[in-house]
Amino acid sequence: MKIHDLIVLKETALHEAKDAKNDAAVEAVRVKYVGRRGLLPEIMKGLKNMDPGERPKAGQIANALKTELQILIEDRQREFSLSEAKTEDNSFDYTLPGEWRSIGSLHPISKLIEQMVDIFHSLGFIVADGPDIETPFYNFDALNTPAEHPSRDLHDTFYLEDGHLLRTHTSPVQIRYMENRPPPVRIVVPGRCFRRDTTDATHSANFHQVEGLYVDREVSMADLKGDLNYFAQQLMGPKVKIRFRPHFFPFTEPSVEVDFSCHVCAGKGCRVCKNSRWIEIAGAGMVDPEVFKAVGYDPDKVTGYAFGLGIERIAMILYGIDDIRQLYENDVRFLEQF
Ligand code: PHE
User: Which residue of 13, 28, 145, 180 could cross-link 140, Cys pair, CB 3.0 to 4.6 Å?
Assistant: First the structure.
């Protein structure tokens, strides 16, 4: 190769790079001249065979070509990528409707707990809590539930290997709260409970309760009924009715089960209330003197009522849900309705 040929090659290469009409054409020029198998590396290799007098000049031209061409190619590439971005920008239509992004919301159980707690706040209750993992003492003994009581049976309770258990109700928090504080007490305890129940449309091994405890001088069953009636009407509206049925709990005496009139069918009979028009919502009663003794309160000086409201049950009648399992499946189509 002669010096003259090199000069022509340089002109041609720069010309081709300037003339390239798009990104792909620039890339073709790059591959042709400065690519690994391109003309320039070839020429560099051939320099040693040239006339020694022409070699330095030829080397200079070849190096200049390489630098100039690379700079030009980069400039042209930048030019094309900018103009592409511009085309994209111009094609954006600001009048198109925006993309819908769904916003998360509280789970219906959490929402209901908030609502319930608000109502009890208005009656002067404050919120207390306790652990999900309990000792048999707090879950049973201190609540006057002797070792041979059926609810201590393995079928009802999840026991842990170290002798602890998953609390079967929120009532142990009654004990934890009272043992550390003198009366009067007015607390609600929303929380998670566990029982070895077979799951079906109305039962779940994991469910929630709101425990209530009111201890003072001369608290009576009438207070219990009045407060629960107020609670029911605040939550469900003025038409809801409540009724007490005699029952037994080891830690209350007398004890009752509390039913709400069915909100779903308004007393006509439906699947949710199994046509009975009433739904069992809570266990309740007057705190047993044995419980007061266990926490060091004097049963001759104070009386109290306690209740345990089943949150899932209330959710089912309030929202018209006929299968408790829907509350735990976390199907977004279901959850979005609340
Ligand atoms: N702890 C009882 C239960 O889980 C409910 C209850 C609470 C009953 C408080 C009486 C007083 O069934």
Answer: 145
Q: How many CA atoms lie within 13 A of 264 on its CB side?
A: 20
Q: What is the mean pLDDT of residues 172-186?
A: 97
pLDDT in tens, 242-262: 999 999 999 999 999 999 998
- pTM for this structure? 0.71
pLDDT digits (tens, 9 = 90+) for 303-312: 999 999 999 9
- Do 323 and 201 meet the contact criterion of CB atoms below 8 Å apart? yes
Of ligand 1's listed atoms, the one at least distance from the Cα of 170 is 1
Tokens 């018209």 belong to residue? 320
Whole-number pLDDT of residue 85: 64
Residue ID of nearest Cα to ligand 1 atom 10? 284
> How far is ligand 1, taken at its centre, from the CA of residue 135, in Å?
17
Give the residue-averaged pLDDT of 278-292: 96
Q: Which of 149, 152, 171, 196 to mutate to test the pocket of ligand 1 (most atoms within 8 A of CB)?
A: 171
**E strand or H helix that includes residue 58:** helix 55-90
φ/ψ bin of 11: left (φ > 0), alpha (ψ from -120 to 50), beta (otherwise): alpha
